[in-house]
Every structure is written in structure tokens, then in C-alpha cells.
Design a protein that fits this description.
mainly alpha; Arc Repressor Mutant, subunit A; 272 residues; 3% strand; two-stranded antiparallel ribbon; globular; Four Helix Bundle (Hemerythrin (Met), subunit A); 11 helices
Length: 272
């Protein structure tokens, strides 16, 4: 985990203005390949990546208009960064009109229409065409191979980051929004540690499908706790470089997500 106790030097007023202008421009460009875990990064680069990740959650529907973001402390844990670069990212997204600042130091997603942000891969299936079994069959094909590659290729730092993300989930049993933010980071850190950009991109696209249903499922008491325990089982196997155990544990996790997604679908249909 990043040492959050070390505060970084602040920018002067003119320098801050230029930094935010550059950051806003960067979030409107296609994001470069993530470099979290790839060595020391300059502060602005970290801010760009955090802003892009929050934007990606809005584009995919994981965060929606009116959703209040977790506290800065919680987001710092989820992203594994200190507060200064996190605040730069939040301020830039506020200036762009994506977030709004609320009392108590919280931020919330504005009324910006997600339909203008959604990525093509995420809307390739309409709600009427969504087949949960087809979806999770595809996830197993892609995700389980990534888990096996991660066990083989991840370095010690990457394995420790995956485990830390899994353990951090225990703090968010009763906070679905904070957990979903952390869940994105857990899966992303695992996928990127596999060292295959194409499979990682496919996995992220598949992860983003059906998020409305998973938002509903994550609010059901007990579902987050079970997911966190499964994350920890996967992460511990990765730490031990035990690919077979990691793949089996991840398969159980996907089955849990599929089953809770089906449960959310049935509830939605009954309510309509």
C-alpha cells in the first residue's frame, strides 16, 4: 500500500491552475495504459489516472447521477494513494461538471447524462438482449485465464497490492458504493498483473456489462461480505503462487456474482 502519511508539497496558485487545466484536458483524451504499480509516478500522472478511473465508473454506469462518493479517506484506501493527488482529481472532475462538492467534504455525481459517456463495448447488449449465462460464461473464459497468468507473472509488489485490496474490503460491508469502487480496483489490479493488455481490456469490458443489476445486488445484506471473503481466498492463493486454488476460488466468486445478478433480475421483473 502507498504510504499515505507522507504529504506531498503543494502547488502555487498559478501552478495549480495550470495543473488542473492540463488534468482536465487529459481526462478528455483516451486514457493511456495504466501504470499503477509500475514504479514511482509523478503526482499529476496519478491524478490523471484517478480522474480517468472515476470517469470510467460513470461511463459504465457503476456510478450514477446523485451517487455520493465515499470519503477521501475511503477513496485513498481503495486507490492506494495519498490525499493531495486524489484532491486534484476530484477538483478537476468538479470543474468539468462531472462531480459536485457537497457539505461535509463529500462529492456526488452530477446530473450529467451517462448516455453521453457510455463506452460502445458497454452498450453492445441492450437490456432486452442480456443473457446472464452467456455473460458469465464469457467472463469465466477470460477472467480465469487472467488469474492463472497473474499467478505465474505477478511480482511480489503486485501480489501484495491484490491482497491488500481484498483485505480492505472488510471495511466496506455496509457501504455498497465504497465497496464497488474498491471492487473495481481489486479486479483491475489482478487483471493488469497478468501482463496481457488485450485480455485485460476484454475483462474490463465484460466486467462493465450488467452493472445496474450488480449495483442492486451489492445492496443486499451479506452479499458484499461473501464477495470480500472470496476476494481474500483468491488473493491468498495468488500470494502463494497456487494457480489451481486461485482459479477455483475465482470460479466460485464468479458463480456468486452470477447468482446474485440473477436474483436482482428476478426482483426487477417482479417490480415492473
Amino acid at each position: 500500500m502507498t504510504d499515505k502519511s507522507k504529504e506531498e508539497p503543494g502547488l502555487g496558485e498559478g501552478e495549480a491552475s495550470d495543473a488542473f487545466a492540463d488534468l482536465i484536458d487529459s481526462t478528455r483524451r483516451p486514457s493511456a495504459r495504466s501504470r499503477f504499480g509500475g514504479g514511482a509516478l509523478e503526482r499529476r500522472s496519478i491524478s490523471e489516472q484517478v480522474a480517468n478511473r472515476i470517469m470510467a465508473m460513470i461511463k459504465s454506469g457503476n456510478l450514477k447521477a446523485g451517487d455520493r462518493l465515499p470519503t477521501e479517506a475511503q477513496m485513498g484506501i481503495a486507490f492506494g494513494i495519498s490525499r493531495p493527488p486524489l484532491r486534484e482529481a476530484l477538483k478537476a472532475l468538479t470543474l468539468m461538471g462531472v462531480l459536485e462538492s457537497r457539505q461535509g467534504g463529500h462529492y456526488a455525481v452530477t446530473d450529467l447524462s451517462p448516455s453521453r459517456l457510455v463506452a460502445p463495448f458497454n452498450i453492445m447488449l441492450s437490456v432486452g438482449d442480456y443473457d446472464v449465462d452467456e455473460h458469465f460464461e464469457a467472463r469465466k473464459v477470460v477472467d480465469l485465464d487472467l488469474v492463472r497468468l497473474c499467478c505465474r507473472r505477478a511480482n511480489r509488489e503486485q501480489r501484495e497490492r491484490i491482497l491488500q485490496h481484498a483485505l480492505d474490503g472488510m471495511a466496506f460491508y455496509n457501504d455498497p458504493i465504497a465497496f464497488r469502487l474498491l471492487d473495481v480496483e481489486f479486479h483491475r489490479s489482478l487483471n493488469e498483473s497478468a501482463g496481457n493488455r488485450l485480455l485485460t481490456a476484454l475483462a474490463q469490458g465484460l466486467y462493465d456489462i450488467g452493472l445496474d443489476l450488480r449495483r442492486t445486488a451489492s445492496a443486499v445484506p451479506g452479499h458484499i461480505e461473501k464477495s470480500v471473503k472470496q476476494h481474500i481466498a483468491v488473493a491468498e492463493a495468488i500470494m502463494s503462487e497456487d494457480a489451481d486454488t486461485a482459479v477455483a476460488a475465482y470460479g466460485e466468486h464468479l458463480d456468486h456474482i452470477r447468482d446474485t445478478t440473477i436474483e436482482a433480475m428476478l426482483k426487477a421483473r417482479a417490480a415492473s
